[in-house]
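User: Working on a comparison across species. This one is 2Fe-2S iron-sulfur cluster-binding protein from Shivajiella indica. Can you predict its structure so I can line it up against the others?
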Amino acid sequence: MVTFTVEDHDGNRQNIEAPDDMGLSLMETLKAYEYPILATCGGMALCATCHVEVLEGDKELGNATDVELDQLENLPEYFPTSRLACQIRISPLLEGAVIKLRGEDN
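Assistant: Here's the predicted structure for 2Fe-2S iron-sulfur cluster-binding protein from Shivajiella indica:
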């Protein structure tokens, strides 16, 4: 299990746990915890509605891919540590990270 913190649109933080042996994406995990993630494209990196900002732990996760950057650059606002939650796999690299929801909410 991996534990990381999620900050919602109102600034509230919650520690959540996710299994790191199922191949789940951060987007799928956030939806399972009932966070308001639209994920309109279903995790194909085509819509950027699962936009998150990695406040802590971004170095461990590495840089956004070109596919992610193509979507993020079309947003009205994105940050140097912005990522698409659908492109981040739950792994030990997320341990202790702080993720802020940035995408549109439902």
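For your comparison, note: The chain has one domain: 2-101.

User: Helpful, thanks.
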